[in-house]
C-alpha cells in the first residue's frame, strides 16, 4: 500500500478509541498521568498502523492475485483471476485529499471473507490494477507471471448516459432517503444513552428529559413535525451526496457506473454476466413518471448497491438507456385473469372492514364507541379500493422472443426483464386460496439476481403455456401429443 495511508489509519481508529480514552481521562481526574496514558494509547495506534502497513503486500502471480499479511501469523489469500466478477474503486474524503483509493475485488462469493480489499493504493495504481484484473479475468494467461505498466493499454471507454444534476430533485421521491431525519434522531438518542455517563450528564438525565417531553406532548409533537418537514430536504441532500454526477459508461466489455460526491465510487459489471435488468418505482415515483434501474447479474454480491444502473430518471430515459446498455424489451405485457383483481381488492379492503366490524360489535356489546379505531378502519378500507385496482393493473408478464418480463407490486412496483438464456427452471406454486380461485404463481428460476422472478396469479392455462412458449424444448416431452392416425 502507499505509505500515505498511514495518515488515514490512525484517524479511522480514533472513533473506536474515543470511549476508552475518555474513560481514562475521567478515571484519572484529568491528571498529567491520565494524559500520558491517553497519549500512549494514541501512539500505540500509530505503531499498530505502521506494522500493519509494513506487513501487508499484494501481487499478481500468473493467473491469480495473492494478498499476504504477516502481522502475527502469516496469512496468504489467493483469488483466481477467472473468479473475479467486478472491481470497484472508491475514494472516501480523506483518501481523495491524499490521492488514494480503495479497490475492492468482487468474486461473487456470498460472504465478504472471500473478497479482497486494497485500502490505500494510489489512484493511478487503482486504475492500473482495475484494468489488469478485469482484462486478465476475461482472458487468463497462465504463462505470464507479471504484467508491466507498459503492456496495459488505455481502456476503450464509451459513455452511455450521464444523469443531469437537475434530476437530483427527484431524490425526495425515493422513500428510503426520506427517513434520514428520523434515523439521525434515533442515532443521536442512542449515543446519548450509550455515552451519557462518560460525557458527564448520565443516563438518568436523559430519562428525566424524556419524561419531561412526555409530560409536554405539544413539544414532542412539534419535534416530530420538525422531523417530518425536514424529510424532503435532508432526504434530497443525502440522495444528492450518494448519486452526484451519476455516469453510466461501457469500458472494455464492462458496464461501469460512477457516482458520489463525498465518496466517489466506480462499480464495474461484466457485460457477459448481465442477464437483464429490473425497473422499480414507488407510488410517488410512478405519479412523477420516474423509475430506478438495477442490473440482474450472475454472481454479484451486494447487488442492491453494486448493481444499480440508474437512480431516479424519467421512465422513457430508463427504457432507452437499458435498451442500449443491455437490450430492449419489445412486447406488451399480458394481463392476468379478472379473478386476480378480485383477490387484490379483497386483501386490500377486507382486513379494514373486519376491524371496523369488530369495533361496531364492541359498540353493540358495551355501548362504547371506539371512534379512534372505527373511523381510521373505514378510511383505510376506502383507500384499499384504488390500491387493489392499481395492484391488479401492475400485474403482467410477456415474452418478445429474446427476453421475458414479469411485473407486480403497487407501493413498490417492479418489472424484471430477463434474457431467455438466463432461465434455468420453472416453478409453479399454488396456495389453497389460489386453488379455490383457479390461479397460480409462476416463478422463472434464474441463476442471477434474486434467483427467481414471479408472475403472480396467472391462470392455469397461462401457467402451462408461458413456459412452453419460452422454453419449448424443455416441456415438449411432457406435453400430451395427439394420437397418430
Automatic annotation (TrEMBL):
This one is known as PH domain-containing protein
Q: Which UniProt keywords apply?
A: Membrane, Transmembrane, Transmembrane helix
Q: Give the highest taxon in the source lineage.
A: Bacteria
Residue span(s) of domain YdbS-like PH? 53-130, 403-461
Q: Which organism is it from?
A: Nonomuraea purpurea
The answer, when asked if Membrane is one of the entry's keywords, is yes
Q: Which residues cross the membrane?
A: 12-31, 37-61, 175-196, 216-242, 345-364
InterPro entries the record matches: UCP026631 (IPR014529), YdbS-like_PH (IPR005182)
